[in-house]
Specification:
Its cofactor is Mg(2+). It comes from Vibrio albus. Pathway: Organic acid metabolism; glycolate biosynthesis; glycolate from 2-phosphoglycolate: step 1/1. This protein has two domains: 8-19 and 95-224, HAD superfamily/HAD-like (Rossmann fold, 3-Layer(aba) Sandwich); 21-89, Putative phosphatase, domain 2 (DNA polymerase, domain 1), CATH 1.10.150.240. Helices cover 40% and strands 13% of the residues. The chain contains nine helices and eight strands. Helix 6 (126-132) links the parallel strand 4 (114-118) and strand 5 (141-143). Helix 1 packs across helix 2 (42-48), helix 1 (21-34) crosses helix 4 and helix 3 (53-62) crosses helix 4.
């Protein structure tokens, strides 16, 4: 798939721009322990993350990638309320950008590309995180996981971006680390660029057959001749 016509680049956040698992794991662990469950580890959360906060918490309560359907909605709701408070209180102090992310984003911005964030993470937390890392001014749109009725791998958010900016699918690139990102790109008929270092439930990202695969973000600059 050619990238010569790319005008807008949509980035996933967690596992793509930012390693957020240390803070997520802390908040999830505090939440489930407050409900009387055994602690969870950062390693477990790395395997469970990627489909939004509610599914992450469901997996933590189930101790499995598959959420136990017997979990009561009231318990799920209580876990989410606790998580929201613990995650807000953590200040995202343990999260950090991956190598070459900052310089790559700035170079793409300077080259005239429109940049957007499309994440399954609850949108309420995203602006503060971007501001902490001085990235807020680089993005024309920031879409959180609960801003639309459906989240990745559904293409709803990507299709909204195409409509808003009057672009065709061949003019947008989706950059992510998981099969949700790759599938969202396929479902929106746009190209995908996948990183090998993120969160993909323990599966090699090449299994999802992205259009391009890289070990670090800076490889995107070479691909685009930016």
């Amino acid at each position: 798939m050619s990238l010569e016509k790319i005008k807008l680049i949509a980035f996933d956040l967690d596992g793509t721009l930012l390693d957020s698992v240390p803070d997520l794991a802390l908040a999830v662990d505090q939440s489930v322990q407050a409900l009387g469950y055994e602690p969870v580890t950062e390693e477990q959360v790395r395997e469970w993350v990627g489909n939004g906060a509610d599914i992450l918490l469901g997996r933590a309560l189930s101790r499995s990638i598959t959420v136990d359907p017997a979990i009561e909605p009231a318990l799920q709701k209580q876990a989410r309320e606790l998580f929201n408070q613990f995650y807000a209180d953590c200040g995202h102090a343990l999260s950090h950008l991956y190598p070459t992310v900052t310089e790559t984003l700035h170079k793409l911005y300077d080259a005239g590309y429109k940049l957007a964030v499309v994440t399954n993470k609850p949108g309420t937390f995203v602006p503060e995180i971007l501001q902490q890392h001085q990235l807020s001014d680089l993005f024309v749109d920031v879409i959180g996981g609960e801003d639309f009725p459906l989240r990745k791998p559904d293409p709803m958010a990507l299709n909204w971006l195409l409509d808003k900016h009057g672009l065709s699918a061949e003019e947008m690139l989706m950059v992510g680390d998981s099969k949700n990102d790759v599938l969202a790109a396929k479902n929106a008929s746009c190209a995908s660029f996948a990183l090998t270092y993120g969160y993909n439930h323990g599966e090699p990202i090449e299994n999802s057959e992205p259009d391009y695969i890289a070990d670090e973000m800076a490889e995107l600059l070479t691909l685009l001749n930016a």
